[in-house]
Design a protein that fits this description.
The protein has 275 residues and is mostly helical. The protein folds into two domains: 110 residues, Cytochrome Bc1 Complex, Chain D, domain 2; 99 residues, Cytochrome Bc1 Complex, Chain D, domain 2 (Orthogonal Bundle), CATH 1.10.760. Helix content is 46%, strand content 0%. α1 crosses α9.
């Protein structure tokens, strides 16, 4: 008669283990269970800490985050990852921006909107600039003075080629006073304070207005281009109206606030861009 096949579980402990073998097996199982328990507890503690920090981040007044080292460190770590995923494509991984596309530098302490407070940065991340949201920053554009209808918001007269050259000379003279014709600068100043209405956004002193995103024209930081005569003339002639997307409907509130904290910290030198 053929032998019956065995139905014994091949991985079950055999009954002929010696006493020493049973003790070894018991010890192995016990240690494994203890390791799993310790790891599970550690993960639970980390999750609890993460949830607690996330709650603190959301409950804090945005501008208070900068003065809370533990909270700022949490925002930096979380914000760095989110910035790399959603912001670096335009502002670059080192946050230096791209003047060829009008993408601002985020670490030069020269703010197009506001003064760099966490709450101000958060609002821009939330609602964007000229992004189509009802709360977006959208109060002014740079007119295209070489066109027949320079400005869509209200009526501004176009400038002749010579007038564009004169305003270009004025702007260039702020950093290069000896390199331009003084008469052209004087004519440009008259246009700046008169026909061109440039003062309305950039102010009488040409230092701009961060409430509406009008840049300072007297420093050596350029949102677009390189500050050359050619570059300045191009901007005056054809206008500018850059866009920053809104993230309020695409990112979680804590992620947006973390990005704001990370950018603020980088601007203040509290974190290196590869920290």
């Amino acid at each position: 008669m053929p032998a019956r096949p065995s139905h014994k579980d091949p991985i079950a402990p055999t009954g002929n283990l010696s006493g020493r073998g049973r003790r070894t097996l018991w010890l192995t199982v016990t240690v494994t269970v203890m390791v799993i328990a310790v790891v599970t507890l550690a993960v639970a503690q980390q999750l609890h800490k993460h949830q607690a920090m996330k709650s603190r981040l959301l409950m804090a007044a945005p501008d208070d985050i900068a003065n809370d080292r533990e909270l700022l460190d949490y925002a930096r770590r979380r914000g760095k990852v989110a910035y790399g995923q959603h912001c670096a494509a335009c502002h670059r991984s080192d946050m230096t921006g791209d003047p060829g596309r009008g993408i601002p530098n985020l670490v030069d302490a020269d703010w197009l909107y506001g003064t760099g407070r966490v709450g101000e940065i958060e609002r821009i991340v939330l609602y964007g600039i000229r992004a189509g949201h009802s709360k977006t920053k959208n109060l002014a554009d740079m007119p295209a003075f070489a066109t027949s209808s320079p400005y869509a918001r209200y009526t501004i007269e176009p400038l002749s080629p010579r007038e564009v050259d004169d305003v270009t000379a004025l702007v260039y003279s702020f950093k290069h006073p000896e390199a331009v014709d003084k008469e052209a600068v004087a004519r440009g100043a008259a246009i700046y304070h008169g026909k061109g209405l440039c003062f309305d956004c950039h102010a009488d002193h040409a230092k701009g207005d961060p409430a509406i995103g009008a840049p300072n024209l007297t420093d050596d930081i350029w949102l677009y281009g390189d500050g050359s005569i050619k570059s300045i003339k191009e901007e005056i002639s054809h206008g500018l109206a850059g866009v920053c997307p809104q993230w309020v409907s695409r990112l979680a509130p804590e992620t947006i606030r973390a990005i704001a904290g990370y950018v603020h910290a980088a601007r203040d030198g509290k974190v290196g861009t590869d920290d």
